[in-house]
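Structure in, sequence out. Go:
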């Protein structure tokens, strides 16, 4: 779809190739020793509670306000170690079957790398739980994944995670692991991996090992965000690139399930600072950031027209759930998951 600022691009430049390697073998080895659990069971043991329509500082001058929003708890609001980035929903992915919102976070300090985690949040109860994402090896060892995780997307049981320079990492939500099935405690909160016959995950109860990977064929493109367009006959995975001061960032779509790494189409967005994008019903929705004290914008492209809508401070990845457009904000004490009309 071409629109003002959305210029068709060479889709071959964003081609991916499957690179599973030993990832599936490593995840299977870990699952032999740590029992699997489901998303619904994880939510039943969720240990944090979001605040309904809390953290209003995130809204800034936004008018009208979101139709719905949930704020992370005080500890997750205040931390300068972890920053939320990606957002997706599970119940519309095909297989999960329980209402859930997933949020990816990256560990910011350079020292003591802890990788990335995903929050599973129930919109029914507002309870949520973090899980640590890891890369496992065939010998049973595992470690953190040091990436930005700027976007995530669910389709079926698979969770796709954007890897800025490599492409896409893939995680099977059917292989969500519960340390409590293997030992009576959660190990050393300062360590990760296997040591002394015990498992450690920085104090997290749940682990999600990577099972697959799609790597960019030609170096250059950056993968900054992810979403799924389910508005047509064939679902499409959407990804693209954030550029700070350059309107040349790209966006592309791949048919799902992902069996061929060549996108079905690609565009240059003509806008800088795009943190999230999704196509839906013939329109493009782009989440545009500003800074930690300034409201972002929602850009809506339809045909040859572009509309600008008010948005919160620090908007990131986008997803469509229940006929509404959802996003997440990243800045300290301004961290919410929110919904607006499409």
């Amino acid at each position: 779809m071409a629109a003002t600022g959305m210029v068709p691009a060479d889709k071959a430049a964003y081609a991916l190739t499957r690179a599973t390697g030993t990832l599936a073998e490593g995840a299977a080895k870990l699952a032999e020793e740590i029992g699997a659990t489901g998303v619904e069971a994880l939510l039943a043991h969720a240990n944090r509670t979001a605040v309904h329509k809390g953290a209003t500082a995130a809204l800034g001058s936004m008018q009208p306000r979101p139709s719905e929003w949930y704020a992370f708890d005080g500890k997750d609001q205040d931390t300068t170690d972890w920053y939320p980035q990606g957002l997706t929903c599970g119940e519309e992915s095909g297989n999960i079957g329980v209402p859930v919102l997933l949020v990816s976070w990256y560990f910011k300090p350079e020292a003591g790398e802890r990788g990335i985690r995903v929050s599973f949040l129930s919109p029914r109860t507002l309870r949520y739980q973090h899980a640590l994402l890891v890369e496992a090896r065939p010998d049973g060892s595992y470690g953190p994944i040091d990436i930005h995780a700027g976007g995530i997307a669910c389709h079926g049981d698979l969770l796709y995670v954007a890897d800025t320079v490599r492409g896409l990492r893939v995680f099977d939500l059917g292989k969500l692991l519960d340390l409590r099935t293997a030992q009576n405690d959660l190990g050393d909160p300062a360590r990760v991996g296997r040591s002394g016959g015990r498992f450690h995950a920085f104090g997290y109860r749940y682990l999600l090992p990577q099972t697959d990977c799609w790597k960019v064929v030609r170096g250059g493109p950056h993968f900054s965000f992810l979403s799924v367009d389910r508005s047509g006959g064939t679902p499409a995975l959407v990804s693209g690139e954030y550029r700070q001061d350059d309107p040349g960032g790209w966006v592309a779509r791949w048919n799902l399930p992902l069996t061929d790494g060549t996108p079905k189409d690609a565009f240059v967005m003509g806008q800088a600072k795009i943190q999230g994008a999704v196509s839906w019903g013939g329109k493009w929705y782009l989440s545009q950031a500003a800074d930690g004290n300034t409201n972002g914008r929602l850009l809506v492209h339809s045909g040859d027209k572009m509309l600008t809508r008010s948005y919160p401070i620090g908007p990131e990845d986008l997803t469509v759930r229940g006929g509404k457009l959802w996003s997440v904000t990243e800045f300290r004490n301004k961290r919410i998951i929110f919904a607006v009309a499409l």
